[in-house]
Design a protein that fits this description.
Layout (H helix, E strand, L loop, with lengths): L5 E4 L2 E4 L3 H9 L6 H102 L11 H6 L2
Antiparallel strand pairs: 1-2
Length: about 150
């Protein structure tokens, strides 16, 4: 059975000896006495306790890593969703504003053009009526000279 001769973990040094080296060290003094056996057992118990604490601390660090990872993931998802909703609402508002502006422009332009066409027809109708009255012609038998030229401007 081999025990570790040197363990280095988390910056803590532990010096342990394998059974052969313990036997070799004690062979010069004869057999192992009870005091050295107790010291060897207490060293093993200390090593086991330290290893247990190291496992516990390693597990604690792993748990906190997961907590931080999950927290970062949740924060990034919340930030992404909030940004998306904010930009979606802003985009919708911008679209509605632009739509209203274009619709108003189209309505105004169409109204202006309709009014212009109506005024042109009214003016042309007044010209035909005036010509018919001046020439003493009866309606609908009115022929306006150069009708095509006057109709181009309507």
């Amino acid at each position: 059975k081999i025990e570790p001769t040197m363990v280095k973990d988390s910056g803590i040094d532990f010096e342990l000896k394998d059974e052969a080296s313990i036997d070799d060290d004690n062979s010069s003094f004869g057999s192992i006495d009870d005091e050295e056996s107790i010291t060897s057992q207490s060293s093993r118990d200390e090593l086991k306790e330290i290893q247990r604490l190291m496992r516990k601390e390693t597990k604690g660090v792993s748990v906190w890593r997961m907590v931080v990872l999950v927290a970062m993931l949740i924060i990034s998802v919340v930030a992404t969703v909030a940004t998306h909703r904010f930009l979606e609402e802003e985009e919708k508002s911008d679209f509605e504003g632009a739509y209203e502006q274009y619709a108003t422009t189209i309505i105004e332009s169409s109204s202006f053009n309709a009014r212009f066409i109506q005024d042109s027809y009214q003016t042309f109708g007044d010209y035909i009526t005036s010509y018919a009255l001046d020439e003493g012609l009866d309606w609908p038998y009115v022929t306006v000279p150069n009708f095509w030229k006057h109709g181009e401007n309507v």
